[in-house]
Amino acid sequence: MLGISGIRRQRYQTAAAFLLPAAIGIILFAILPIAQAVRISFFDYSLLNPEQIPVGLENYDRAFKDPVFQVALKNTLLYTVLLVTFQTAAALGLALLLKQQVRGLAFFRSAFFIPVVTSLVVISTVWKLMYNSQGFINGVLRTASLSPQPFLSSVDQALLSLVAMSVWKDVGFYMLIFLAGLQAIPLELYESAAIDGASRLQSFGRITLPLLRRPSVFVVVVGTISAFKVFTPVYLMTDGGPAESTMVIVFYIFRSAFRYFQMGYASAMSVVLLVIVLVLTLVQFRLLRTTVEY
Amino acid sequence: MVLKPPTRILAGLVTLLVLTLAVPTLVRHTALAQQRLTLRFWMSADPQLEAAIDELLRGYTRANPNVTVQRDAFPFNEYHQKIATASAAGDPPDVFWMDVRTAAFAAQGTLLVLDKYLTPQNKGDILESGLIEPVWKSHIYGVPMHELTEGLFVNRAMFEEAGIKIPQRVEEAWTWDEFVTNARRLTRRTGDRTDVWGFGVLRHLSDWSILPVIVQNNGAVLSSDMKKATGSLNSPAVVEAMKWYQDLFTRHRVIAIDPLPDGFPTGKIAIFQAPSTYRAVLDRRFPDFKYAVVPMFKGKRCAVTAGGWNVSIAARTKNPDAAWSLVDWLTREKHADWVRTSGYLPVRKSLIQKERQFRQYPWDIFATQLQNCAIHRPHTAAYNFFFDTFLAVAKDIALGRDVQRTLDDASSRLDVALSRGVGR
Amino acid sequence: MDAPDHGQAIAGREQPVLHVSGLSRQLLQRAAGQGLLYLTLGGLAAVFLVPYLWMIMSSVKPAVEIFKYVYPVSWRTFIPEIFTLDSYRELFQLVPFPFSRYLLNSVFVATSVTVLSLIVNALAAYAFAKLEFPGSGVLFGIFLATMIVPFEVLAIPMYIQVRSLGWVNTYQALIIPFVANPLGIFLLRQFFQEIPRELEEAARIDGCSYFGAFRRVVLPNSVPALVAFALIRFQASWDAFIWPLIAAPAAEKRVIQVAIASFVTEVQTRWDLTFAASTMATVPIVVIFLILQRYYVQGVIMSGLKG
Questions:
Q1: What pLDDT score does B15 carry?
Q2: Interatomic CA distance for residues A109 and A178, integer angstroms
Q3: How far apart are CA C155 and CA C157, in angstroms?
Q4: Cβ-defined contact of A277 to C241 (cutoff 8 Å)
Q5: Pairing between strand B37-44 and B95-98?
Q6: Are the C-beta atoms of residues B389 and B410 closer than 8 Å to each other?
Q7: Do the Cβ atoms of B84 and A47 come within 8 Å?
């Protein structure tokens, strides 16, 4: 290749300079630790003992045969599907509601957004109390003459309870994304659809939804990645129970590393998780991606 | 002046005596004084206990002016994790609290062997129950600071109103049937809402609280070499005991699956199983609440879990001797002070014999139980796994799941973990 | 400019001649629709706000009362029988450090992370958005891919890394690892891409360097996005629990979430302190957000995620 021209060189140099601090940070505190984790996955390594014994693929073999790992994968998948579905629907619903002319729009929008800026630790702590069989939520149910629910004490309801709490926490953020998307749709489209005789529902399906593809992709992809990483609610509220109904991958990894001191095994599971999420993300991109011109 | 001969001899003897005493002291002082060193000491967080420890540490620093002690405390639920990560990074504290998990840490070489520091006289003064958890493969890795065991706390007013006698001696402990009867009588409901639960447990659904029930039925959770769970955890005796415990939740409904906090002193729980240190909590935070301490109920035999904090030294410490002097200060020299300010139980026979209060109600209940009924959690290197598995088992059983099946599943899981020895 | 107006416009077009009764029926329908809308929104807002109300009200109740009136729910669930600031008082009398110390630590750490994050990530985002260079796409993809890994998985290798840098028990350990943030680079890049080339080109023609263009053109036009990003980073740092626990410096550098965890001891959980501390940890951020939300919303809306 011929020598780069002066202008190009200056641009490349500037780019390098601008990127350097972020790159250093990401290399030092993300890429190197990831590489380290991958390396450790091929060893039998106890947290307390610096001595590491190479064991090849034994940790991976163990993971695939581990019933708890399988349960954790299944639960994480279930949690993700439930969460992304409810969260996306709720976010869209709230955005549509707020799109109507309302007085006090800012108030409602803030109300929905406050949990987003609240610490997950605080929320998990408070919600655990609220879910108690004689706690606040059951108190409301009882006042409304409905029967109290076991929530976190029930094998059937525990995971759903966590999903509900997570939707409550983050829906405000995704609602904003959809709001932005909705605002960007030119009104003329609706007007011409109306002239052509389309009903409200039809214009929703033919205009709104397709034009919300971009924000939807963001909401679904980011929601999925975030859901797969769920940890704090399980750690603070259920310990993976009851009957492992809320045992999720990151929690199991954390436990294996920090409570059972099995770093090698935990790392192997982490690598498997990483691969799964990467594949899932790529698949989602392929399926959902579209270029829309209007 | 001129001293007469006898006085001179006397003077000489006195001088000799003084020198004999002073020189070693001087030598020791100079030896230690030559090194200014810092010891790091970690403990589990609790404001009252931390204040008490600080008091002791101040005395230590006065006696050893060349040593600086940095004390730190970490939240109880994350404490061992903190020790582990610090050790993993090669940066552990010199001296720290350790408990039944001694085995896990000792197995990986994290703890210093203390055999040579613990004199027979010192060791002989410690209660047998205190020397179970800090021992691993016949070596000692920690010295107990105190003992801790449990009892039943009862709401005086409720008992008087119901006309139930409050047993005050271990011999008068309730049988299983008597206990259930009392709990049922004291449970109050309006419709589907329970206003008063007959029974509650502070360390809800944990091995600490439920192992006594199993042992009282002559069951055992692990084989005697602690390498196997199948055959023990799912044996008929254990199944029977756990079924009885399950009935408390599902049939008699005297205990809540997810209790609200502070239920006992607010009059929502009648009989409360709690560690001996709970007395201090009640006295301090709910001073107007009238309660009584009652011995733990007994099945075919008596059993109560015992186990307090021990003090261990990091294998990698740079100052083992200084570290030991701190350990000794905390566990032996200042034992009486610690017991007094912390509210824990004494672990030294000399103190129990010396102080009359430990032979009086209510302390005598704890002391007697310690000496006759104490059982311990399995101090295996896979303890954390055991704890988590048992907690899951307890929760499932409390929710009504089939006891035999739950115990069978747990046993096979535990077998795998125990044979693996947690990673190694 | 919204659907309801649109609906009315259609109605207007389809019925150029309005009967009075027809008009009032429409108005009634509209009012009913609005009423239902407000009811729904109000109900939803309550669902979102009531837990906070409970938390804040519980923080001013004496410990004994906190769980007394929870079941069934009544006004007493919220309004304290005895109003007391004892919980807060005790927080400030904690040893070895009053709670304000931990609050300040959190503020310091979160602010540092935010400020540094803004600088580092904005620079990187600008490079990706405006400076074409070979491998830009691949590099960006790699950065984003690191986002997938959960933090708990990396905690130990990161801790070992931090230790090898000699940063154990320092504030740096709490700050530096979280400065570079791929998601932030992504969001800012989206935003920067929307800024018209011409503005920058004009500046460069006037002799500005890239950095000058960045500082004088791009940044001032990106205030909403920057505010949005700053808020997100601040809150993420404020929320951190596992890392500060692991890298957990000694008590004097402890942050708020770890301090709250220490209210659970061997023999009791101090819920009164937990509620008070949680309130103190939550309210300031919410207030900051409410003040800045105009920018935040604008930032998210204009960040080009729309299309």
A1: 60
A2: 12
A3: 6
A4: no
A5: parallel
A6: yes
A7: yes
- A vs B, Cβ pairs < 8 A, gives 89
Domain boundary among C84, C112, C140: C84
In which band, very low, low, confident or very high, does the pLDDT at C8 lie, cut at 50, 70 and 90? very low
Which candidate, B242, B212, B241, places its Cα nearest to that of B374?
B212
Residues B67, B73, B79, B84: is their CA dihedral positive or negative? negative
- Determine the 3-state secondary structure of B2 from DSSP: coil
Interface test with B, best of A261, A262, A263, A269 (most B CBs within 10 A): A261
Confidence of residue C32 (pLDDT cuts 50, 70, 90): confident
CB contact under 8 A, C51 and A253: no
Of residues A4 and B258, the one with the higher pLDDT is: B258
Inform me whether the pLDDT recorded for A202 exceeds 50: yes
Q: Is C73 in contact with A130 (Cβ distance < 8 A)?
A: no
Is residue C12 predicted with pLDDT exceeding 50?
A: no
Query: Are both C79 and C179 inside the same structural domain?
Result: no
Q: How far is B97 from B80, CA to CA, in rounded Å? A: 9
CA distance B209 to chain C (A): 13
ipTM, two decimals: 0.87
**Domain with C79 in it:** 18-84
Can you name the residues that pair with B69 across neighbouring β-strands? Answer: B39
- Per residue in B79-138, pLDDT (tens digit) is 998 898 888 877 899 999 999 999 999 998 999 999 999 999 999 999 999 999 999 999
The CA distance from B174 to B161, in Å, is 19
Task: Tell me the whole-structure pTM to 2 decimals.
Answer: 0.88
Residue A9 within any structural domain of the chain: yes
Domains and CATH numbers, chain B: 35-145+309-343 (3.40.190.10), 150-303+377-418 (3.40.190.10)
Phi, psi of C183 (to 5 degrees): -60, -40
Q: How many CB atoms lie within 10 A of CB C278?
A: 27
Facing residue for A47 by CB, picked from B88, B193, B382? B88
Asked whether the beta carbons of residue A241 and residue B395 sit closer than 8 angstroms, the reply is: yes
Residue B190, helix vs strand vs coil = strand
Which residues in A lie closer than 8 A to residue C306 (C-beta atoms)? 180-181, 183-184, 214-215
Residues of A in contact with B424 (CB under 8 A): 44, 46, 49
In chain C, positions 71-90, which contact chain B (CB-CB < 8 Å)? Answer: 71-72
Are B131 and B140 a contacting pair, CB within 8 Å? yes
Task: Give the best residue of B85, B98, B258 to mutate against chain A (max A CB count within 10 A).
Answer: B258
C10-19, C218-227, C262-271: the lowest-pLDDT one: C10-19
CB-based contacts of A213, cutoff 8 Å, min separation 6: A288, A290, A292
Which amino acid belongs to residue A180? A
User: Taking each helix axis from N to C terminus, what angle separates A67-99 and A105-113, rounded to the nearest 10 degrees?
Assistant: 170
Span B393-400, average pLDDT: 94
Residue A41 maps to a domain: no
Question: What pLDDT score was predicted for residue A291?
Answer: 45
Mind telling me how many Å the CA of A156 is from chain C's nearest CA?
Answer: 23
Residue with tokens 């050893």: B64
- Is C236 at the interface with chain A, CB within 8 A? no
C10 in a structural domain: no
Nearest to C58 by CA among C69, C43, C49: C69
The answer to whether the CB of B405 falls within 8 A of the CB of B333 is no
Strands B150-155 and B291-294: antiparallel
Domain count, chain C: 2
Which pLDDT score, from 0 to 100, does residue A227 have? 94
- B327-355 b/e with 16+ CB inside 10 Å = b? bbbbbbebbeebbebbbbbbbbeebbeee
Q: What is the pLDDT of residue C241?
A: 85
CA distance C176 to chain A (A): 8
Indicate if C62 and C95 belong to the same structural domain. no
The Cβ-side half-sphere exposure at A53, using a 13 Å CA radius, reads: 9
More confident residue, C116 or C25: C116
